[in-house]
Amino acid sequence: MSIYATLWTLKFPKEGAWLTDCDWIEVTAQGVPAHIGSPSPGAGYEDGDPYVTFLPPAVEVDSDGEAPFMRAVVFITEYTLKGTERSGQEYPSPLLVLTGKEYAQITFEDLYERICTALRGNRQPIIAEIIAPDGSRTIIRAPRDKPMDS
Questions:
Q1: How many CB atoms neighbour CB 12 within 10 A?
Q2: Best CA proximity match to 24, nearest among 34, 14, 16, 15
Q3: Are 120 and 127 in contact (CB under 8 A)?
Q4: Over the range 40-55, which residues count as b (16 or more CB within 10 Å of their CB) and which as e?
Q5: Where are the beta strands (DSSP E) in the chain?
Q6: Confidence category of residue 147, pLDDT binned at 50, 70, 90
Q7: Counting beta carbons within 10 angstroms of the beta carbon of residue 115, is it exposed (0 to 12), middle (13 to 18) or buried (19 or more)?
Q8: What is the pLDDT of residues 74-115, one digit of tens each?
Q9: What are the C-alpha distances in Å from 98 to residues 33, 80, 81, 122?
Q10: Fewest CB within 10 angstroms: 5, 116, 138, 141, which?
Q11: How do strand 126-131 and strand 137-141 relate by DSSP bridges?
């Protein structure tokens, strides 16, 4: 049984920036319910949290297994293969992992930027796309001396 519940899937520019002919990639948000690994008595994890090595810290839950926030939200793509030698529930290279509280409080704009930054990898942000009359294109990226998150 999976510890994840799919929250949503959206398409993002594959390289983290929209261009006139960009490819798109599906990004899926996988929620981890609050009761997973919870240290609360009766939650079923009295012997410890088996997911502590790859998820944010577990959260306390009430007697119904509920809490104000999920434990975590993990963002993956179709290229993120599930399962590692350490745990079949671990994504080996998620794009982003947030606590449930961070996810509940982040704006969509900030989340979009964080996902695009992760998709961009070590490439600088695109600051302009120039399309010449002949249809040729030139991409201009931020200089290397600028922070990558700007």
A1: 21
A2: 14
A3: no
A4: beebebeeebebeebb
A5: 5-13, 24-32, 72-77, 96-99, 126-131, 137-141
A6: low
A7: buried
A8: 999 987 767 777 787 888 889 999 999 999 999 999 999 999
A9: 13, 17, 19, 21
A10: 138
A11: antiparallel
